[in-house]
């Protein structure tokens, strides 16, 4: 059964392992928590497995990729103990996604309106009227000037920035407990990036929704999050408060990441790439961890 | 800056319009001929008159009024036979293409979306199926099942479902990887519902284009089967049987061969052009 304890984490990932069919691990013993109303940044290089964590939580892992070990709890409820149908409706009720690419995240042949209201009527059982009113309210909140006209438009009639704002409105519309924002600004140009970031932060504060914010930009981390998880090759190598990470990073990789981030106030400092020796060392650790894991599995 | 980009004003004679209206006009003409054949046809298509055999078309010397496209070697009116032939041609192509399209597209959608063993079974079946030479396959099928409208339609569906299955499978796989599918799933949509309400509308333009192409192909297959005398009972006028009969008389009555051939060619061409035109018309991104 799905028991909910009084003071549960919004999201609790415990020792999660995700693997390809042959056993090649993409996530290695990942644990992370989100408290209600908290923004946690998830950083790491491309291919580190950031998106995989979000997909595992939201139940949209690609066909061949499976959870091999570990637990995911939403508000204290074990997702893995549920039947697929219960799990789908639980995830749909409690969480939402702000995707990376606003070009492909909206169905090109369907109008905007139903794409926002569908989950509201389907999962939350709202009337069509109520869902429409809520969509209008949120579109207005993300500064879409003519909500009704936009809801009757097709995605290709709108700019990338508008589409991303629509996706933000859609994510916040059902008042979810958790939002996974997977690099929501990467596909946009710099000026639009700032607006989008500000919008997410404002809405997050107003609603108190917990946000797992995936990014590889340490500058964004500093602006938006209270906690940081640093991922390397599917492993968590640092998990701390954002302030701590910037003032006193524990892991050399995190130190290197911060050094590699050009900051306006320390612009005199030369740009430092992550040292190759460090990367090699980290890969060696990963291989050792995998060997140990495989050995334990055989026993 | 405006919130919604305005559509550029549409020109009256764009390429798409041309591709849409010209074939639609011809197909409309053929469809009207098929529907109202008894009212339109100037003569009884089966009436033989040995006094009237091999009359030339209206623009040649020796033609008879009322026999606009001439008569064949049994004195039957060519125009009336083409008009009645449109009935079988359109009926067969409509039923055969729809059957083929529904069956093939459904398998393509399932294979492309669910992947795994469903995909392996369907894809293997398609490969094996396509190893048979199609016309031989059709002739064999009709020979086994017996002649008749039902056999012709079944033969077309059994041969050509693979075209739909292959194309729609590939398109479905592309669509299934799009983020909007994930978004719908996170929004609580069931897998089957996602396939029907999110992916199907995106592959619909391709299904329609293939459907039109298939209608053209069905017209040809029916003509081929008539040509080798394996289609409908040989009394009913079909374009294929007219072409077969006309072939023997080409040196002294070329019109018996040429006019049904033109009707066939125009119809097939119209269907495939219309398919392309409709695909663009229905695709909001290409439009
Ligand atoms: N469908 C898939 N099949 C097999 N491997 C995959 C698949 N999708 C991703 N991977 C692998 O999983 C690993 C983690 O991918 P993921 O998309 O989570 O990276 P990421 O940290 O989000 O990177 P990015 O910053 O580029 O988005 C990568 O090594 C990638 O090659
Ligand atoms: Mg990613």
Automatic annotation (TrEMBL), chain A:
Topological category with respect to the lipid bilayer: Peripheral membrane protein
Annotated GO MF terms: ATP binding; ATP hydrolysis activity
Domain annotation ABC transporter: ranges: 11-258
One of the record's GO cellular component terms: plasma membrane
InterPro entries named among the record's database cross-references: AAA+_ATPase, ABC_Ni/Peptide_Import, ABC_transporter-like_ATP-bd, ABC_transporter-like_CS, Oligopep_ABC_C, P-loop_NTPase
Family: Belongs to the ABC transporter superfamily.
Annotated protein name in UniProt: ABC transporter
Organism: Celeribacter baekdonensis B30
Organism phylogeny: Bacteria, Pseudomonadati, Pseudomonadota, Alphaproteobacteria, Rhodobacterales
From TrEMBL, chain B:
One GO term of the biological process aspect: transmembrane transport
Domain of life: Bacteria
Swiss-Prot/TrEMBL keywords: Cell membrane, Membrane, Peptide transport, Protein transport, Transmembrane, Transmembrane helix, Transport
Localization of this protein: Cell membrane
Coiled-coil annotated spans: none
CC terms in the record's Gene Ontology section: plasma membrane
Family annotation (Pfam families): BPD_transp_1
PROSITE patterns: ABC_TM1 (PS50928)
Membrane-crossing segments per the record: 20-41, 88-115, 135-159, 207-232, 252-271
Topology of this chain in the membrane: Multi-pass membrane protein
Domain ABC transmembrane type-1: 86-275
Family: Belongs to the binding-protein-dependent transport system permease family.
Matches recorded under PANTHER family: D,D-DIPEPTIDE TRANSPORT SYSTEM PERMEASE PROTEIN DDPC-RELATED, OLIGOPEPTIDE TRANSPORT SYSTEM PERMEASE PROTEIN APPC
Protein name in the entry: Binding-protein-dependent transport system inner membrane protein
Native source organism of the sequence: Celeribacter baekdonensis B30
